[in-house]
Amino acid sequence: MDWFEKSLQENFDLPPKNPSEEAQRRWRSAVGALVKNRRRRFRMVADLDSRSQNEAHRRSIQEKIRLALYVQKAAITFIDGAKHKEYRLTEDIINARFSINPDELASITSKHDVKALRMHGGVDGISKKIRSTFDHGISASDLDTRQNIYGVNRYAEKPSRSFWMFVWDALQDMTLIILMVCALISAVVGLASEGFPKGMYDGLGIILSILLVVMVTAVSDYRQSLQFKELDNEKKKIFIHVTRDGSRQKISIYDLVVGDIVHLSIGDQVPADGLYIHGYSLLIDESSLSGESDPVYISQDKPFLLAGTKVQDGSAKMMITAVGMRTEWGRLMSTLSEGGEDETPLQVKLNGVATIIGKIGLVFATLTFVVLMVRFFIEKGLTVGLSKWYSTDALTIVNYFATAVTIIVVAVPEGLPLAVTLSLAFAMKKLMHDKALVRHLSACETMGSAGTICTDKTGTLTTNHMVVDRIWISDASKSVTSDSSLEDLNSVISPTTLGLFLQGIFENTSAEVVKEKDGAQTVLGTPTERAILEFGLKLQGSHDAEDRTCTKVKVEPFNSDKKKMAVLVSLPNGTYRWFSKGASEIVVQMCDMMVDADGNSVPLSEAQRRNILDTINAFASDALRTLCLAYKEVEDFDDDSDSPTGGFTLISIFGIKDPLRPGVKDAVKACMSAGIIVRMVTGDNINTAKAIAKECGILTDDGIAIEGPDFRSKSPEEMRDLIPKIRVMARSLPLDKHTLVTNLRGMFHEVVAVTGDGTNDAPALHEADIGLAMGIAGTEVAKESADMIVLDDNFTTIINVARWGRAVYINIQKFVQFQLTVNIVALVINFVSACITGSAPLTAVQLLWVNMIMDTLGALALATEPPNDDMMKRPPVRRGESFITKVMWRNIVGQSMYQLVVLGALMFGGEQLLNIKGADSKSVINTLIFNSFVFCQVFNEINSREMQKINVFRALFP
């Protein structure tokens, strides 16, 4: 090896700690030359070998070549490693006592760079370099420093549009541009013929009217954009659990910093890039980033978690390594510009109406212009002849053309989309105060047409704070609502039974006890898990806890298909014990033994099994949710297999109560009177579900309750007869809810609203016309799939959404009735006057002024009427019903006829009726016609407040 070492010394120095580009180049060149030289010698040896040279010498040369190749590989690895070391530690990073560059830290996770992670000492090494510990987290006093160095967890958003951009957009209307050209021509011709300032009046008046219309439209659109931005910010408020200063806290994702220890559970969205610390069966849906539908299993061997992905199964702790624009999601978002809201179905329908009316207006405008021009040419030919032309003639033609264009402007009901948007935005703003966050604009409008609400029970109809009300253990059933009843229970069961029972509660749970900032302890988890853990803590009380020195070996989180959860723990004696907890009928079937009063396992006889089933039914009949706890001793286990499905020993049955929310009975009653059918879809026992449904008024005499398995077994023909009667579906799977919603929409053409809180509810929420996710109990996946988020998880809020939805629909109908009346009258009066008298009584300036009032202030007034109780006493608008009803046509035709009679009388007989004489009588009559037309629209707007009842002044001053 002397020659080899000598060659290394001759060709290049030993590598410095931070090699320069020149040093790297020398390494590459030297190692490449060395390898080339060794390969040449190898070929020479091969030739010598063919001449029967010494075999030992050939092997020696081969070994040297192999070592040279290793050197080359080491050099390349060194050079690649040098690239990682290009990330410099700046003075700010060093002063803050961090040991890793933000960009390098971010690249490790985003690039899934296992080599770089190992080079830094793995997850443990990274945590030390960013001064974070797995149990304590970070210190809250470091937040500003961390944000300054590693960034904030916010994404760069597209800058908001300024007010002047809205003004520019409003000026792009083609008809307004044509009118401005006409106004300029009118001003030029007027100055030439009539001089200044009289010749400027018509042209300047049109320009000022156009500018006023543009400014009002721009102000309205700008205010609306600000509202949407505010609502969008509300929509993005997501909270997550982290460990800071040694205590678990709930914070906004925007407050996350590098080093935070985040707790993830099923349905959560990963809030930033990070590294997996530990957890159970963590499956991540990365389809939002990779497009791949298959979930990714995350473990300590593959610890990389990316922002924007979702937890599909399991739970875990992660350490944040990159936030905001340094995350992979942030870089993706920087290449995209967020789109605006899609048009709602009603907006699409009204745009079609606007197009038809616009075409009718174009025909009327063309006919009006043609009639005016024909009369002009006839009169001119009969008086002075067609060969003589004056500047006033050009002014007349320009005014005729401006009048025709203005008729188009008036006829095109561009206020319809504005009215829809205003009404929806107003409703969204009001619903925010009523604890409902609208994610999709169309949901407001669609909710007004809902004929069915498929609702959860827990948390929606009930308070979502469960407590253990009764318990069965050691063949004894006890009420445990008070401290004395707990003491009574302690006297019934032996310490051995109590220890086993408490071990099952504390080990087999997804809830956990955390310490708040003030030192108080809080139980976090699902309502059911919290209730059982709180009961265990209360039962443990002042007693010394039974020795539960065991270690969790395997965890199976609760699965909605299996309806149970399980945990495997290792005991001090070297054996293992499975604990399983879940739906009563599932767990009882798994048991062939039970725990007696002395803590011994005894066979479960048929008589005892019947007694247990009777106890479960008795609990459920009292509106208690039942869960069973069981255990099984095993000698060994298989990492790849699931928990056993038999051979368990039954420990206890829990009867958990969740009282009804205040106001739910009245809300369900309001639904019934509004023609909305409420159906409860729950995973609870059918007796529990029926008891709650009867208590809140959902299950009536003509309704039925059914279990999920029975529902799944029905044929399509049987479902057609069965579904209209279903009021309660118990023991349902997520697929059952999805099937029910699909059939309600497909078979019966119902507009269906669905409430949900879990990840498993996402398909039904997505399938429904309106998906309503729970804001408190709901997972991020459920919220992403929903159209609305019910922030207080209250069924009464859902009814309020339906009220506002109906108000939106009816308000738009009012505005359409009002606007169509104005359009018909304006078109007919100008066209008839042009045909008979040769002039239009309503000038371009006057029509523009009316159009401005009609399209903006009229829309604002009618589109923002609040809901009233009468709206919830009429049936919902069914899918496919005509938007313009017979009542609306009656009001439109009646109001139009009345206005045309009044204006026609003034136009053709006004001078005689009012005894108006003189040279300016025509101008006086036209002014009177215009004022009468305006006041008619004021009365018309008041009349439009109520389409059916005579008293249109009701609640005018609320």
TrEMBL record:
Report the EC code(s) recorded for this entry: 7.2.2.10
Looking at the record, the residues that make up the Cation-transporting P-type ATPase N-terminal domain are: 117-191
What is the protein named? Calcium-transporting ATPase
Cross-referenced InterPro entries, in alphabetical order? ATPase_P-typ_cation-transptr_C, ATPase_P-typ_cation-transptr_N, ATPase_P-typ_cyto_dom_N, ATPase_P-typ_P_site, ATPase_P-typ_TM_dom_sf, ATPase_P-typ_transduc_dom_A_sf, ATPase_P-type_domA, Ca_ATPase_N_dom
Q: State any GO CC term.
A: membrane
Task: Give the organism's phylogenetic lineage.
Answer: Eukaryota, Viridiplantae, Streptophyta, Embryophyta, Tracheophyta
Q: Which GO terms describe its molecular function?
A: ATP binding; calmodulin binding; metal ion binding; P-type calcium transporter activity
- What transmembrane ranges does the database entry give? 174-193, 199-219, 356-378, 398-427, 820-840
Reaction(s) catalysed (UniProt annotation):
Ca(2+)(in) + ATP + H2O = Ca(2+)(out) + ADP + phosphate + H(+)
Q: Which SUPFAM superfamilies would you find in this protein's record?
A: Calcium ATPase, transduction domain A (SSF81653), Calcium ATPase, transmembrane domain M (SSF81665), HAD-like (SSF56784), Metal cation-transporting ATPase, ATP-binding domain N (SSF81660)
Q: Which organism is it from?
A: Urochloa decumbens
The protein's job, in short, is: Catalyzes the hydrolysis of ATP coupled with the transport of calcium.
